[in-house]
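Hi F.,

I've been meaning to write this up properly since the lab meeting, where we talked about keeping a consistent format for the predictions we share between groups. The idea is simple: the sequence comes first, exactly as it goes in, then the structure tokens exactly as they come out, then a line or two of notes. No screenshots and no reformatting. I'm using this chain as the first example so we have something concrete to point to.
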Amino acid sequence: MGVDTMRSGYDRTSELKAFDETKAGVKGLVDAGVTKVPRMFYQPQDVSDNNSSSGNEDLVVQPSIPIIDLEALDKDPIRRKEIVDEVRGASETWGFFQMVNHGIPVSVLEEMKDGIKRFFEQDIEVKKQYFGRDTTAKKAVYNSNFDLYSAPAANWRDSIFYSMAPYPPNPEELPVVCRDIVVEYSKKVTKLGYLLFELLSEALGLNTNHLKDMDCAAGLSVVGHYYPACPEPELTIGTTKHSDNDFLTVLLQDHIGGLQILHHNHWIDVQPLPGALIVNLGDLLQLISNDKFVSVEHRVLANRVGPRISIACLFGTHLKPFPRLYGPIKELLSGDHPPKYRETTAREYAQHYYAKGLDGSSALLHFKL
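Output, unedited:
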């Protein structure tokens, strides 16, 4: 890339700065009528490779991530045990599953997607008030590409970050166009998160409250993503391949699709399922489970259709200094299963993750013993 840059006279840094200074994001480019993807978005390798997951669609039936039905969870102890077994299987093999009958009404899911869409489609001058690159500075921070200056290529995506726990925002700190629904949805997802950490604790053979007592559910960030329609989706990507730097993510996606996970070296589509929520395990859960559970790489393709809306709720205490050290859980260790990772704070882990950017490698490697 360096030689090519010198030969062509292409000044990537200037292009990044000019884009960033508009504060209008990728949506601003689309609104301006771009018909070509700017060079700063070109992926270093062909991102369309193996997009169709199996590469051999006619011969191979594409596997799909597990779907877990939470109905009757608290009413039937036998069903609860079955659900724990399903969660364990999904967490060991896939690192991802979809949930149905999770208790959050469809009307709330729809209003949350609409609220995030309203934020991005409001007047640019109002939106700019929330623009920034330090997600610890304010309770609501909007930008395009948190790693714009460190990543090999920019992603075709704009985002808004809300810091909701452990230090909740005052309502007036949140954008008025989506304030009420962000607060309501965060409360409902927090309750669901508590339940998920109970199931994950039991799936690890631990006391029901073990992960909650470790403060895995203490922090919550809500990240709304806006993926505009892309004129040349084969040249770029919505979100680069990565795993999440938290304990657990609860994801709401719309009907457009594009989310894929890397399973046995194949890209598998996560098909939109009306009313469902997606759960994926984060790096810190893989670390504290000593690799019993897996945090799996995933990506989002760019699409000619848009905008695509998704909302990721990340459980982790990484936005503010939080003293607790996390290492492999003692109860999961033995002579045959020694610790594989050193202890770290959620903050230290996140700082390494963000400094590295979405470069396609796992931040976990840095913490291996």
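Notes:
The chain has ten helices and 14 strands.
The radius of gyration is 20 Å.

If this format works for you, I'll send the rest the same way.

G.
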